[in-house]
């Protein structure tokens, strides 16, 4: 009897100690390790460090208010900035406004949606890609209109210098699963604006939504490879995987190289 009483006493003490312990789901206790490999982005540098050298304040009295900046181009003594509403603006390196290049409008010497620029100081011109008109317009660095290209097959979104050849990256607006939207490439001569279109698209994709620029953007040439960035369309989980992607160009095609995964407001990285 004493033995049974002693056993019951220890059982009671054990249960009393455990009643305050909170049970957690196994999913919260489990961990997952993701290996990050970023050597392909380092180039020849042993360390991948971004250092802030200087900042320029553009929100000063006398400067036009900026709304949506699409592109930048830097020279030794000035820089150019494309704002969707303000157009192409010129600043000195201290951030003082020097003037506007071109005007927004429907005329042949005007742009409607300026989306990207290319600065060619050798030819003393700046090229403006008009997304809506599907043309490229050239101005002198003093602001004088020079020329307008013929209409190109897609909506231009960026310029890219491939060795001595200037490329215009474009997107098509509509597409189906049978005939996908495409990324198109054309070469352009900065002085004459003569355009030569590639025979076949660089990349094709399908989307149930219509957005400006949900396609690969050229990032840079790293380790002799051209990298492209595919931004995800936020909130479109039904038609897109919830991840951002970097593509590497191989044999004329884009292959997935890096994922930036965004889940529950926390950014995770899966470098492959």
Automatic annotation (TrEMBL):
Gene3D superfamilies referenced in this protein's UniProt entry, alphabetically: TolB, C-terminal domain
> What InterPro entries does UniProt report for this protein, alphabetically?
6-blade_b-propeller_TolB-like
| SUPFAM superfamilies (UniProt xref) | YWTD domain
Q: Mind telling me what this protein is named?
A: 6-bladed beta-propeller
Source species taxonomy: Bacteria, Pseudomonadati, Bacteroidota, Cytophagia, Cytophagales
């Amino acid at each position: 009897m004493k033995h049974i009483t002693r056993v019951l006493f220890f059982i009671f003490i054990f249960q009393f100690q455990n009643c305050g312990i909170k049970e957690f789901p196994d999913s919260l206790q489990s961990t997952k390790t993701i290996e990050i490999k970023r050597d392909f982005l380092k180039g020849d540098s042993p360390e991948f460090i971004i250092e802030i050298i200087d900042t320029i304040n553009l929100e000063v009295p006398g400067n036009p208010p900026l709304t949506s900046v699409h592109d930048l181009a830097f020279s030794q003594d000035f820089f150019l900035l494309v704002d969707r509403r303000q157009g192409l603006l010129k600043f000195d390196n201290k951030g003082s406004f020097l003037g506007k290049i071109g005007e927004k409008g429907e005329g042949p010497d005007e742009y409607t949606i300026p989306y990207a620029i290319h600065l060619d100081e050798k030819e003393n011109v700046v090229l403006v890609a008009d997304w809506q008109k599907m043309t490229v317009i050239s101005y002198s660095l003093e602001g004088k209109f020079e020329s307008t290209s013929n209409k190109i097959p897609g909506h231009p979104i960026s310029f890219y210098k491939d060795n001595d050849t200037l490329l215009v990256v474009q997107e098509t607006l509509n597409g189906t699963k049978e005939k996908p939207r495409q990324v198109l490439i054309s070469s352009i001569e900065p002085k004459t604006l003569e355009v030569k279109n590639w025979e076949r698209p660089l990349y094709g994709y399908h989307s149930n939504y219509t957005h400006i620029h949900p396609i690969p953007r050229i990032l840079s040439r790293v380790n002799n490879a051209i990298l492209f960035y595919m931004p995800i369309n936020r909130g479109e989980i039904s038609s897109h995987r919830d991840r951002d992607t970097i593509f590497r160009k191989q044999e004329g095609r884009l292959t997935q190289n890096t994922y930036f995964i965004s889940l529950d407001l926390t950014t995770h990285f899966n470098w492959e």
